[in-house]
Amino acid sequence: MAGTILIIDDEPGIRNTVRDILEDEKYQVRTAEDGPIGLEIIHNENIDIVILDVWLPRMGGIDVLKAIKKDWPSIEIIIISGHASIDLAVNAVKLGAFDFIEKPLSIDRLLTAVRNAKAIADLRHENLHLRQTGTGTNQLNGTSPAIQTIRAQIDQAATSNARVLITGENGTGKELAARSIHELSTRASRPFIAVNCAAIPDTLIESELFGHEKGAFTDASSRRKGKFEVAHTGTIFLDEIADMSLQAQAKVLRVIQDMRFERLGGESSIEVDVRVIAATNKDLQAEIQAGTFREDLFFRLNVLPIRMPALRERLDDIEALAECFLAELVGKHGRHFSEEASTALKSHLWPGNVRELRNFMERLIILSDEAEISAETVCSLLGKTPEVLAAPEAQTDLRLEPLLGIKLAEAKDNFERLYLVHNLRKSGYTISKAAETMGIYPSNLHAKIKKYSIEAGE
Predict the structure, then answer these.
(1) Among 46, 119, 240, 269, which lies 20 to 30 A Cα-Cα from 319?
(2) Which residues lie closer than 8 Å to 456 by C-beta, 6 or more apart?
(3) What is the pLDDT of residues 232-270, one digit of tens each?
(4) Helix, strand, or coil (residue 29)
(5) Is 347 inside a domain boundary?
(6) How far is CA 404 from CA 137, 306, 329, 434, in A?
(7) Same domain as 303, residue 315
(8) What is the spatial distance between Cα 27 and Cα 113, in angstroms, rounded to a whole number?
């Protein structure tokens, strides 16, 4: 994306000429004849670069520069002036101007300054993005049918701007899937803003998502952009969306519908272009029935549904994930798992999913210095004995572990879903064949598939 440039100059001829040149270079251009009008435009729109004249009516260019850098420090500013002096140029740069160009303007000089300013703005934005998101190991490693299905769904989702709803247990990699969709999309170079809805108090959710004006409430000492505004042209990831209050859900629904909102305490409407990806570990249909989640918001979000499989549904991937984490933590050389240790890892059902496996690997690296990690070490750190690998009765206990802390009805549902998925896979997702294997009618199998939201390829 070329970016949006604001020209603030009181001479119509210069504004129009520079605008035409920049539009020929595929930039989006806004113009203003004085500082207050320019500041109002910045207030309402996302501006990347400002070309600012020094001598302006109502408010001098240096004062405009100070105001922009105070409230929007990431905007790059190119100062232009027909009354240039060394002192003026030095002062402007000290105050945060990117460059200083004398009038009459050299078109080549101006375009070079704009390109360089845009490159710096993009680099600053990328660095901010990396600090916000971090860089982690791709936890979508593996070759199981379940993870291959997820990769295919991510690839399909990345080709559109449709809203995505990602469901799954804690630790299954919902945020990683959201990041992957963003990074494979045409918005990859733009912001990815993650919001943990469960961590924001209900009293602050509106300010956090939509921003606020100075004085909007007691502690609002300055204007602040909200997450939706920061995510403009990019992606916003609303994690744990089901933990929002009904009041907050209503506000998010309105913004998703209109892509327009007002900052808290503000009067101007701000329009954004944001792709929305949401995630939850809860059953939203049950939440709707309980009256804690809005059905209309569910339908808005659930355009492209993706269900992240639990690690116990992709046991074949455990070894690849463990090796990946081992390489991340200690490098590509020096340590590996014995065959028995890999078997021990697979014998555990990992109720905390990939996150639990990652934490376990950190613990293992700290507490063990074996070059070849043994089954005894793995079992010890899992709180098991090596004999469980050869004892059928102990193996049964391991399989029961994820079910021991829940009610019988929920345990039965969990087992039934795993049983159905297993038989559907074996039949190649042929309903009649799977139903015959399980001794039930195809119509009953259809009803159970709907009940458990089972999708082909899981």
Answers:
(1) 240
(2) 149, 429
(3) 989 999 999 999 989 889 999 999 999 999 888 888 888
(4) strand
(5) yes
(6) 32, 28, 32, 28
(7) no
(8) 14
